[in-house]
Recover the amino acids of this structure.
């Protein structure tokens, strides 16, 4: 088999932490019990699920009773948006969100609009941050829910969710944040939200599990019927192995989040130095400022077709945008919201790295990337 590519696509997913794998193995190899069974095996499985719930909630800084396990952030976002709008009073029938949200949020919004809800999708500033004045104007007594991402998956912008939430609450609206790209990477203990969507595989946990944290007292409507698991909000048999892996990844992040961010920020500095010989434009906030996650760099390379560059570098895992839409040939809606033309979008790479990347391997990847980009820009 060919060697694994060097990972420069960490917004799409992250490698499974050894601690997560170790926590999962007993439930993959021998402890097959259903956590809803009354016998001893079921009780062991159920205890594992609840221990994981405590760990994930602890990283969020919230009560575990509000944490609802889901199949991932997409399901959590669907549950949050549809559940909140369906539970709202008839006088509150509007959702406010932003043009740079993940596609599952925007598609859920369109679903709600087809079902009779009113939807406001706000533009963003050229650096990918919210226009607070426009946001304030959009709020009103008919708003049931505001949805705003904590860290953008394409340009790495870190949004002031606590401030946005306070503004929503002042108008009597609930506030939801998709924290899939933030959880386990930056401090998420003071988001100010009533609903928070999480993903395990974006922070070195297993694929197939996420969560929606629901502030106690917040009413949302379940979106699937069944046995009433997860406080009646998400029916279906829980997966102890996935829960255990998610919990272990959260526990590891809680103890190492500051050191991990320091390492990742040093890699950002390394990337900016390596890319300096190539003319490029950074999309999103200032990479040296406080409003950008340092594990992300969205760069436009004038004169270089990103798809050709990716094809010429099979030893690197590269992406031009979000993984969920990369096969659709649709231009990035996030870059369009920032004002990039289709031509500029075709010349854009989304580079992402995580805490497992070594400076030596990163230097090798960046050298390959810059050399190939220069060849495409200046063919012999």
């Amino acid at each position: 088999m060919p060697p694994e590519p060097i990972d420069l696509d960490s917004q799409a997913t992250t490698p499974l932490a050894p601690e997560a794998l170790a926590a999962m193995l007993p439930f993959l190899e021998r402890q097959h019990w259903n956590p809803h069974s009354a016998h001893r095996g079921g009780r062991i499985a159920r205890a594992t699920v609840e221990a994981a719930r405590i760990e994930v909630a602890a990283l969020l800084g919230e009560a575990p009773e509000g944490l609802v396990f889901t199949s991932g952030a997409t399901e959590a976002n669907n549950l949050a948006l549809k559940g909140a709008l369906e539970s709202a009073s008839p006088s509150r029938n509007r959702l406010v969100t932003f043009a740079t949200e993940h596609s599952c949020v925007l598609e859920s919004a369109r679903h709600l609009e087809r079902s009779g809800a009113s939807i406001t999708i706000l533009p963003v500033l050229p650096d990918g941050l919210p226009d607070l004045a426009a946001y304030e104007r959009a709020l009103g007594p008919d708003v049931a829910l505001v949805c705003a991402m904590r860290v953008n998956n394409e340009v790495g912008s870190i949004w002031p969710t606590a401030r946005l939430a306070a503004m929503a609450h002042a108008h009597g609206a609930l506030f939801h944040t998709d924290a899939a790209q933030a959880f386990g990477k930056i401090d998420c203990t003071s988001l100010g939200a009533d609903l928070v969507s999480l993903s395990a595989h974006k922070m070195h946990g297993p694929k197939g599990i996420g969560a929606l944290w629901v502030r106690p007292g917040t009413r949302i409507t379940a979106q699937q019927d069944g046995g009433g698991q997860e406080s009646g909000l998400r029916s279906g048999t829980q997966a102890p192995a996935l829960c255990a892996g998610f919990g272990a990844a959260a526990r590891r992040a809680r103890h190492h989040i500051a050191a991990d961010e320091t390492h990742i920020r040093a890699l950002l500095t390394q990337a900016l130095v390596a890319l300096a010989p190539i003319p490029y434009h950074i999309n999103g906030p200032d990479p040296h400022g406080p409003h950008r996650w340092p594990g992300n760099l969205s760069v436009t390379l004038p004169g270089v077709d990103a798809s050709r560059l990716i094809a010429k570098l099979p030893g690197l895992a590269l992406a031009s945008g979000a993984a969920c839409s990369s096969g659709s040939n649709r231009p990035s809606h996030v870059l369009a919201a920032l004002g990039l033309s289709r031509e500029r979008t075709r010349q854009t790479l989304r580079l992402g790295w995580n805490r497992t990347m070594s400076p030596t391997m990163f230097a090798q990847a960046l050298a390959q990337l810059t050399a190939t980009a220069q060849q495409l820009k200046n063919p012999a």
Observations:
- The chain has two domains: 6-14+256-375, 18-251.
- The first strand starts at residue 6 and ends at 7.
- The radius of gyration is 21 Å.
- The chain is about 40% helix and 15% strand.
